[in-house]
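Hello,

I think I submitted the 5-O-phosphono-beta-D-ribofuranosylamine job twice by accident. Can you confirm which output corresponds to this input? Input:
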Amino acid sequence: MAAKPVAPIKRLVVLVSGSGTNLQALLDEIAAVGAEAYGAEIVAVGADREHIEGLARAERAGLPTFVRKVKDYDSRDEWDAALAETVSAHEPDLVVSAGFMKIVGKEFLSRFGGRFVNTHPALLPSFPGAHGVRDALAYGAKVTGCTVHFVDDGVDTGPIIAQGVVEVRDEDDESALHERIKEIERRLLVEVVGRIARSGYRIEGRKVVIQ
Ligand code: GRF
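Support: Only one job matched these inputs. Its output is below.
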């Protein structure tokens, strides 16, 4: 009997801005099951700032890292082009924004649109933007959660791949609620990235169909 063909392992570049626990969840899963079974490997980790735990996690894992800071460029467009160029050099199949707190621009999206995945700590389209957890709490929502989606040229408006639900408790403050969301978010991100890497997907308008 012919051996089952092994699908190529997809190359991931992960972008971070903070503690990098979502990145760590990806690293841990790939280390646990192996890149072949997971369907993807992380080939580089990038950030928009230095001295963050997300970069330290990548360095401990022996991965190449890079930093592109907006303030080092004359314009936002130049920063965006530099980020796009650096990410491109690692030849990723997918780029994952795992707590990357910058909106990318035209050049980045022209190269990586349709293969740039973001995770957001709210149930989109509710509570987009930088304060999704705080805004859900302030609104008095009884459930919130996290959304893994493709990035388009809006703020957290791209096609949704998967969502996880978290109940809001009366005693929650922003930090307690965010921690519970992140537990679900890390599992969801690991599951979704692996699934789209292994199975492939199509984006039909707003719908993401995993093959
Ligand atoms: C996540 O909740 C992400 O959705 C939000 O920032 C958090 C990043 O956490 N944008 P970490 O850096 O992966 O620990």
